[in-house]
């Protein structure tokens, strides 16, 4: 017989919610936002909770939709080449299957899988095309302005030097600001 789900022993049978301490996430003590869909997003300006029994973390994240929009802008606007996780993140933000996204940018679903899963970097032109189509399809006015009014200067700077990148977002006065920072 196969038992699914976590095995609970009597000693760690607890409710994390009741055993948690509240911690303020600051620029010096960032909260790792693992549910963002990217491995490298860190938040400040919110409270999070750490279970004192098992270490499990959770957070209050206000204005989640705005946060995801700001992270998307930071991903598309970064100088470094898009990583596989970032391509998957952008594709999922557009709610596109690999096959449909591939048709839009002119590559096979297998190619998308090689970028997203095998760590193959996209070519410079594929990288630019993904960003441009994301701007056009995302419905984000700020990104639309980027591709309509500032596309020459923007694309001429891409991709910049290869470097590991993190995304850092801070909530201030109920508004999210996000940027890419060297990892
Ligand atoms: Zn716990």
Describe this structure in words.
The protein folds into 2 domains: 1-63 and 164-183, no CATH class; 81-159, Putative cytoplasmic protein (Orthogonal Bundle), CATH 1.10.3100.10. It is 39% helix and 20% strand. The chain is globular, with a radius of gyration of 19 Å. A hairpin with a 5-residue loop joins strand 4 and strand 5 (57-59). The mean pLDDT is 92. Helix 2 (84-93) packs across helix 4, helix 3 packs across helix 4 (109-118) and helix 5 crosses helix 6. It has 183 residues and is α+β, with helices and mostly antiparallel strands. The strands form 2 sheets. A 4-stranded mixed sheet has the order 2-3-6-7, covered by helices on one side. The chain binds zinc ion. Zinc ion (ZN) binds at residues 14, 16, 19, 51, 53-54, 56.
Helix content: 25-40%
Structural class assignment: alpha+beta
Bound molecules: zinc ion
Tell me the radius of gyration.
Answer: 19 Å
Order of helices and strands: EEEEEHHHHHHHEE
Kindly give the count of domains: 2
Q: Which regions are unreliable across 5 or more consecutive residues at pLDDT < 50?
A: none
Strand content: 15-25%
Question: What's the pLDDT, averaged over the residues?
Answer: 92
Strand order of the largest sheet: 2-3-6-7
How many strands, which pairing sense, and closed or not: the largest β-sheet?
Answer: 4 strands, mixed
Q: Count the E strands.
A: 7
The end-to-end span amounts to: 45 Å
Which geometry do the CA atoms define? Answer: globular
Total helical elements: 7
């Amino acid at each position: 017989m196969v038992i699914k789900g976590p095995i609970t022993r009597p000693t760690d049978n607890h409710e994390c919610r009741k055993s948690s301490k509240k911690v303020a996430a600051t620029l010096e003590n960032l909260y790792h936002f693992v549910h963002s869909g990217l491995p490298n997003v860190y938040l400040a300006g919110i409270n999070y909770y750490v279970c004192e029994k098992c270490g499990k973390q959770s957070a209050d994240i206000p204005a989640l939709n705005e946060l995801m929009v700001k992270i998307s802008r930071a991903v598309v606007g970064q100088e470094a080449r898009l990583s596989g996780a970032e391509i998957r993140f952008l594709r999922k933000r557009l709610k596109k299957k690999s096959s449909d996204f591939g048709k839009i940018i002119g590559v096979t679903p297998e190619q998308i899988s090689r970028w997203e899963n095998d760590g193959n970097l996209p070519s410079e032109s594929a990288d630019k095309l993904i960003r441009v189509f994301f701007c056009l399809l995302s419905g984000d006015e700020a990104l639309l302005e980027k591709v309509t009014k500032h596309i020459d200067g923007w694309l001429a700077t891409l991709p910049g030097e290869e470097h590991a990148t993190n995304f850092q977002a801070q909530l201030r006065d109920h508004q999210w600001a996000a940027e890419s920072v060297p990892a």
